[in-house]
Amino acid sequence: MVKAIQVGLGHWGFSWTKEVIPKVPNIEMVGYVDSNPDAVKRVQDELGVDEKSCFLSLEEAVQAVRADLAICTLRTEAHYPVVKRCLELGLNVIVEKPFASTVAQAKELVALAKASGRVLMVSQNYRFQSAPIAAAELISARKFGAVNLVSIDFRRHAPTQGYRYWDMPDPLLADMSIHHFDLMRMVLGDEPKRVSCRTWNPEASPFGYHPIGVATLEFERGTIVSYRGSWMSSGPVTPWSGEWTMDCSEGEIIWSSRDHFMGKSGPDRLSLRALDKEAVPVALAPVQYTDRTGTLASIAKVLESGVIPARFSSGEDNLHSLALVQATITSAARGGEWVDIAEIMQ
């Protein structure tokens, strides 16, 4: 069993407490931390958590209980200082994305984890679904040869779907597209080389910053990705992972994942279309622990076994996804000019 402390019990953190952590059997909760007494009281009143396991500071919790893992579920700007302190106190860490506000901060956290011999994982939950795992395996096996062009569309209409973070900077690229960028890297098994991106905010939008964007991404092995994302789309809603068409030398791999809309949930989907043939649906292997339960179960297994599995989203690996976000934001600020990932990673 992995003994864990959760840090951050706000709106999203409470969702982890209630809906995610109880579903991972080899996690034993020994502490809950939040500086807001109301948040602490909520987990006590609504979930029956013993008040002896609740603390108003991380230091207080670490002094009172023995833990192996910190589950950091706070607002983004708190990630860097809290994760840093957890690592300094000797804890392994799983943290929500993005795991730092800047690449420089992220590099510091990765170096600290390495120096202290601790595991730092970023909860890239979209990786733990049937379709992207199958797509990654098909690409790795070169099912249809080399990948030439990948087209991805993400469409949602935030004002009618319960979105509430209207003043968040870069609501598309930093909050949503980071999932898609991370999946690009995982599924292609490749790293981005440079990007060009434009973003904008349409009339009558409630967003304070740009909710729509288009980007062209060039990967190291030559694959070009065409990406279109919108929080203000009036078109058909896509699954949360978007709609993917991967055009290869001998056929296409077409897939979508996390198909949740208005309280309804559909399965992941993947089809293969050989050159000049009709698309054929593929039966997907089930994933034991999906989404956020998948990320938590993954780090628990790593801590128990000491073995790092394929496609594990370590902090070091996730530096490249964070850099991709920063590169697209930088490109958009420069009017769409090409930005090299190497510039961002310096």
Report on the architecture of this protein:
- InterPro entries: Gfo/Idh/MocA-like_OxRdtase_N (IPR000683), Gfo/Idh/MocA_oxidoreduct (IPR051317), GFO_IDH_MocA-like_dom (IPR055170), NAD(P)-bd_dom_sf (IPR036291).
- The protein has 346 residues and is of the alpha/beta class.
- The chain contains ten helices and 17 strands.
- β5 (92-96), α5 and β6 (120-123) form a beta-alpha-beta unit.
- α5 (103-116) runs antiparallel to α9 (315-333) and α7 (177-188) packs across α9.
- The mean pLDDT is 96.
Short description:
The chain contains 10 helices and 17 strands.
Task: For this entry, give a set of tags.
Rossmann fold; nine-stranded mixed beta sheet; single chain; alpha/beta; about 350 residues; Dihydrodipicolinate Reductase, domain 2; six-stranded parallel beta sheet
Give the N-terminus to C-terminus distance in angstroms.
Answer: 39 Å
Estimate nothing, just give the exact number of structural domains.
2
Number of helices: 10
Low-pLDDT stretches are none
Largest sheet, order of strands side by side? 16-15-12-11-7-10-9-8-17
